[in-house]
Amino acid sequence: MFKNKCDLRDFVVRREVRRTDFMVHGEHDDRTAPQFRNRKGRGPHKGRYDRSRRDRQRGNHSGGFGGPGPRSRLDDTDGDVTMSDGSQDSSSQNRFNPYGRPFRKGDGRFDRDRRQGKGGGRGGGGGPFRVGDRGGGGGKNQSGWYKVTIPHGRKYDKKWLLTALQNICSVTYTPVQYHVDHNRVHFYVDDSSVASALHKCSHKITDTDGYKVEVHVNKSAPPSFLLSDLKPEHLEHLKQCMAKRFDGSQQALDLNNIRTDPDLVSQNIEVILNRKTNMEAVIKIIEENIPELTSLNLSNNRIHKLDELAELVTKVPNLKTLNLSQNELKSDRELDKLKGLKLVELWLTRNPLCDVFKDQASYISAVRQRFPRLLRLDGHDLPPPIGFDVETPTTIPPCKGSCFGSDEIKAVILRFLQQYYSIYDSGDRQPLLDAYHDGASLSITTPYSTQNPSRSSLGEYYKDSRNLKRVKDSTIRFRLLKHTRLNVVAFLNELPKTQHDIASFTIDVNTYTNTLLSFTVSGVFKEVVVDGKSRESTMAFSRVFITVPAGNSGLCIVNDQLFIRMATTEEIRRAFVAPAPTPSSSPVPTLTAQQQEMLTAFSQKSGMNLEWSQKCLQDNEWDFSRAAHIFTQLKAEGKIPDVAFIK
């Protein structure tokens, strides 16, 4: 009925399947079909597109029927992967094959089979997917297995993806060993007709984002779990082989190229350590017999994943030297699975991952991030590691609080901050003009974030943020700097009204000379809306003031750097425990003569100013003895802020 050279894949039955949870496309608009140049091809597809074009021009096809050929009407033009021996998608051309030779055009088992006339079935060279071809050994590859790959399949729900494929696949199938590898999804099928049907599903499913799901199918070795496990008698031979390779004096085990060990080969035992079951067997033997092992050589074993080796972290805790050279590790991310090992020597030479780094320094840095105690890498000594060699959990000492350097500087700074923030938190910040130098400058910064800033409480500050990680343009950077005191104070007046928790302030003096004083103040605040109610969110700030002397023991700001972020849970819990006095209220309201006398005496003995002395007495119902006891206890614990002692 058909000519021998005709590929039955050229004849696709048109159909349209409708589902509620995804869209299926069985036909494509000819206007979007790719155009191919009329030139001779090479290899198994020689002249394929030219032949299709000639058929359309003649109004027939290779079967001899009149009218337009099926390829002209039903050709899938979505760029599906050509399922043939000689053509693969770009990703599969570079895909690691642990048992294959380096790629050379025209080389390989299937190319040789084609040249020798094998695997052609009745069609004589039509490729691996000759639909309906059941005889002659040409319908399947030697193993009978095919690997199905879904690029970017990680983002899909497994149930949705498999159901969608089954709904449009013309053959019922059972996916074997469904798994995710990076962004791809893989599973296996063991029938060529199923593989061919799945291949035709490529670009027929549209996901919720409007993208078409690609389906790649390639010949494959059987799934690793189906490969025969080592039999009990084989395990005993493997154990003896490992014993022969173990050096008790060095606590070292050499498993280099173990698959070619004569003792195993003579017994027809194949131990391939990139197989899950084989590696697990080796690790179990190590755990049961030599758990004190300190050196392990796994070089030249075609290892491309380190999942099973992660067991070494707990089962071989004394391992110090590991040789993984001459394997097939492609990414340094595989090393993350071994991060718990306290290695001092590691070999990775002649692995593909060694070629991804731009220089030796970045290579060493990436490896040392996983193994900070490493002293030798690929046989070369490394500089001694820098770090804290702490074996047991250590409690970090509590913060010391403010650091002023001297009582004189402390008094000056606390007086300045009391005056500054009493004005800043008032309704009018215009009086702050007196606090800034004529040539002062100010900048504001918020944390760098890729999220939508308008949804955050920091949205009001984000538009003026001069975060250099976000703002790259030098012109914009300059514009975000506020110059001269008039512009600085005008900008501060535009910011939301605030209430700062003075008791939360921590002050650190950075630099102090006779002509300059630089200090950092950190604390929490909340915004206040027009009606006087505060917002739910509490924010934290860190502010660096660079000042020069002004007037009689005063300070004048020449540079102001304000950083604002969201407060932590602990900061929120401790914020605004005591209500702050309003700037306009009198520090000492009307008291009885007895209370006034008690207040004066308490202030003299405690050293606190009248405002904080009154608060302490009021909180203890004007019980002088109890207030004195509480004051002594809180002062010993460092819980009374420095501002309480400013008089």
Automatic annotation (TrEMBL):
<feature type="compositionally biased region" description="Gly residues">
    <location>
        <begin position="118"/>
        <end position="141"/>
    </location>
</feature>
<keyword id="KW-0677">Repeat</keyword>
<keyword id="KW-0539">Nucleus</keyword>
<dbReference type="GO" id="GO:0005737">
    <property type="term" value="C:cytoplasm"/>
</dbReference>
<dbReference type="Pfam" id="PF03943">
    <property type="entry name" value="TAP_C"/>
</dbReference>
<feature type="domain" description="TAP-C">
    <location>
        <begin position="593"/>
        <end position="647"/>
    </location>
</feature>
<keyword id="KW-0509">mRNA transport</keyword>
<dbReference type="InterPro" id="IPR030217">
    <property type="entry name" value="NXF_fam"/>
</dbReference>
<keyword id="KW-0813">Transport</keyword>
<comment type="similarity">
    <text>Belongs to the NXF family.</text>
</comment>
<dbReference type="InterPro" id="IPR015245">
    <property type="entry name" value="Tap_RNA-bd"/>
</dbReference>
<feature type="compositionally biased region" description="Polar residues">
    <location>
        <begin position="84"/>
        <end position="96"/>
    </location>
</feature>
<dbReference type="Pfam" id="PF24048">
    <property type="entry name" value="LRR_NXF1-5"/>
</dbReference>
<dbReference type="InterPro" id="IPR057125">
    <property type="entry name" value="NXF1/2/3/5-like_LRR"/>
</dbReference>
<dbReference type="InterPro" id="IPR002075">
    <property type="entry name" value="NTF2_dom"/>
</dbReference>
<feature type="domain" description="NTF2">
    <location>
        <begin position="412"/>
        <end position="564"/>
    </location>
</feature>
<dbReference type="InterPro" id="IPR009060">
    <property type="entry name" value="UBA-like_sf"/>
</dbReference>
<dbReference type="InterPro" id="IPR035979">
    <property type="entry name" value="RBD_domain_sf"/>
</dbReference>
<dbReference type="Pfam" id="PF22602">
    <property type="entry name" value="NXF_NTF2"/>
</dbReference>
<dbReference type="GO" id="GO:0016607">
    <property type="term" value="C:nuclear speck"/>
</dbReference>
<feature type="region of interest" description="Disordered">
    <location>
        <begin position="26"/>
        <end position="144"/>
    </location>
</feature>
<dbReference type="InterPro" id="IPR032710">
    <property type="entry name" value="NTF2-like_dom_sf"/>
</dbReference>
<dbReference type="InterPro" id="IPR012677">
    <property type="entry name" value="Nucleotide-bd_a/b_plait_sf"/>
</dbReference>
<dbReference type="InterPro" id="IPR018222">
    <property type="entry name" value="Nuclear_transport_factor_2_euk"/>
</dbReference>
<dbReference type="GO" id="GO:0016973">
    <property type="term" value="P:poly(A)+ mRNA export from nucleus"/>
</dbReference>
<dbReference type="GO" id="GO:0003723">
    <property type="term" value="F:RNA binding"/>
</dbReference>
<feature type="compositionally biased region" description="Basic residues">
    <location>
        <begin position="37"/>
        <end position="46"/>
    </location>
</feature>
<feature type="compositionally biased region" description="Basic and acidic residues">
    <location>
        <begin position="104"/>
        <end position="116"/>
    </location>
</feature>
<keyword id="KW-0433">Leucine-rich repeat</keyword>
<dbReference type="Pfam" id="PF09162">
    <property type="entry name" value="Tap-RNA_bind"/>
</dbReference>
<dbReference type="InterPro" id="IPR001611">
    <property type="entry name" value="Leu-rich_rpt"/>
</dbReference>
<dbReference type="InterPro" id="IPR005637">
    <property type="entry name" value="TAP_C_dom"/>
</dbReference>
<protein>
    <recommendedName>
        <fullName>Nuclear RNA export factor 1</fullName>
    </recommendedName>
</protein>
<dbReference type="InterPro" id="IPR032675">
    <property type="entry name" value="LRR_dom_sf"/>
</dbReference>
